Amino acid sequence: MERVRVLAGHLTADCLDINEPSISRISTNAASSQGNTVDARYHARTGINSRGDYEKMYKRSIQDPAGFWQEQAQAFTWQRKWEQKHMDFNFDRWKGEIGIEFFKGGTTNMSYNCLDRNVKEGRGSQICFLWEGNDVGTDRRMTYQQVLDETCRVANWLKQEGVRKGDCVAIYMPLVCELPIAMLACARIGALHSVVFGGFSAEALASRIEGCRSKVLVTATGGARGKKPIELKKIADAAMDISKKNGFQVKSVLLYEHPAMPKSKVSSQQGRDVWYHEVIPKQSSSCAVEWLDAEAPLFLLYTSGSTGKPKGVVHTTGGYMVMAAVSTKYVFDLQPGDVYWCTADCGWITGHTYLTYGPLLNGATSVVYEGVPTHPDPSRIWQIVEKYKVRQLYTAPTLIRTLESHGDEFVTRHNRSSLKILGTVGEPINPRAWEWFYKVGGEGRCPIVDTWWQTETGGILITPLPGAWALKPGSATLPFFGVHPVLVDDKGREIDGSGEGILCMKTAWPSTIRTIYGDHKRMEETYFSTFNGYYFTGDGSRRDDQGFYWITGRVDDVINVSGHRVGTAEVESALQSHEQVIEAAVVGYDHNIKGQGIYAYVGLHEGVERSAQLKKELKALVRREIGAFAAPDVLHWAPGLPKTRSGKIMRRVLRKIATKEESQLGDTSTLADPSVVDKLLETRGQ
Ligand code: WT7
């Protein structure tokens, strides 16, 4: 532990509960699931059909990464080729600044490779996006040519508004085709997009708009998910008001009229807001691409960490493009013309890499579904699979558990014979849900690719390749090509063979996070200082005797709610902003459907009534500050918090109380006031 502290030299040693057993907490789940092997037969068109095929290619990718990746990159259009020594990285802070470089000297364009290249290769009239609305019967299809034309129009409008290479455009949209189109339009002219998930609140949107000084916002009147329409424009207006007070003004707003929220129901500000359907059709449908350096930033995407405000993770053009394309191709065995469906929203990294860029780079047809998968009933997802004859279905464990809870009949009433590959992402999948997805969802014939990755990794790093080896429910299995994972112990020593430790990456892959927008130092501290020389993932993992990885969950103070990362610090700070609250501490606990739920301990000022009304108010406060998905599931009025003599909250104790495992509290002798624990136990459930 001491060494970690020395190397870290700052807060990570504190937020990393290495000496607190969050690792063992989760490993008990995973440990039970070692045995069962499932051999789903599948013949991959990529030619990787055995572990031997994989080993051969994997070995090459590790021994000669520069050669391997440049070979992969050749499938794309580059305006200028990379230099001979195109790849370099430094993960060692003692050697100097952390940096990663791929395809140095090369220039390319993401929008060109996603659209123009496909049109040139004869896929202009092939469907690019199959859009399905929230309400049954609402749908729309766009060919590659149509998406290209529309992307050009939006790009031309952005240019007209003064957006230039390197500027940042904020996008706050429902999941309509215009959302990935806006992303592609930014990419075409070298502007960075910053997509903010439509479920984020006005405060959260405001801080993201200000964070990258987006003068242009692309938004919509509203959106439709489930029964009630979402008032996006109202939230966007509130966000822009907040930003204005903070001294930052959005200059122009491109406003898309969503049928669920007609024009007449929203206000628009003259001189700032323009209607999409009025200005975009007038733009030219051709727009020359801006050829960009491989290392030019492509986008930023905010994500929560264990401390402080969300960070703007930056990905760059060339490396991210190649990783998105190659991982989609091999993991989903994706070929041009395949109908592929990733259920994520573009507001998250999965929607960037595996709904938009990955499928388009492979010339596939990407299904885009705006609504909730259980609307109007839990058969919807399978109905869409049947309607579009989906071949690959990529979704999240939380959704699988929800569907499972509704029973098999909703699934079996639809024809699923088109399905060939299933995928999951976002959190460890429990073996029971895995088996249900496999047997019921996929009729016991589709391999499940349990893909492990992160916003910062840009693409999938640990995953099965379909048909190449037998699966084990709950294991993400083996590293993808060019990925070099290691497990380290709490002192940063690599663990050989089977064992359990903290998951790190020893070398760079093309879509490694490049920086945190405007704060390179924070990126170095967050990912490269816990264990010098390694990229620190924040996850624990076990490796079995076959070399398979079993991700056990976060080892830092990040809670994974339904596959979405929620930083404890953010929720705590929202709660603490209430005038009746003195202190708050937030931990995760096992939740049947969400994977983890949010458990908040709240200390109130003297004399404040501990009412149900106040609980409601506090939950609403978190919703307002962050978004609905971050609202605590449980609020516990805490008479005090367990703190060490140095004032650090002992979260391990809070986690045990939340999960009713108080018999395993461990050593509490270092608490400043050990009686706090009994008081917390007495007040639980009140
Ligand atoms: C965290 C990253 C990457 C897209 C979605 C989430 C957890 C992700 C898995 C998996 C176990 C997983 C990790 C990771 N996670 N995939 N297959 N098995 N855990 O992206 O919000 O950046 O969160 O999600 O804890 O660190 P994210």
Describe this structure as you would to a colleague.
- This protein has 686 residues and is an alpha/beta fold.
- Helices cover 33% and strands 22% of the residues.
- It has 22 helices and 31 strands.
- Strands 13-12-9-7-8-15-16-24 form an eight-stranded mixed β-sheet, sandwiched between helices. It has a seven-stranded mixed β-sheet with strand order 6-5-18-17-19-20-21, with helices on both faces.
- Strand 15 and strand 16 form a beta hairpin.
- The two termini are 37 Å apart.
- 5'-O-[(S)-butoxy(hydroxy)phosphoryl]adenosine (WT7) binds next to helix 13, strand 21, strand 25 and strand 26.
Question: What are the bound molecules?
Answer: 5'-O-[(S)-butoxy(hydroxy)phosphoryl]adenosine
- Report helical residue fraction: 25-40%
Helix- and strand-based class? alpha/beta
Portion in beta strands: 15-25%
Instruction: Please identify the oligomeric state.
Output: single chain
Largest sheet descriptor: 8 strands, mixed
Instruction: Tell me how many strands there are.
Output: 31
Number of helices: 22
Strand order of the largest sheet: 13-12-9-7-8-15-16-24
State the end-to-end CA separation: 37 Å
Shape: globular
**Which residues sit in consecutive blocks of at least 5 with pLDDT less than 50?**
1-33
Rg over CA atoms = 24 Å
Mean pLDDT: 93
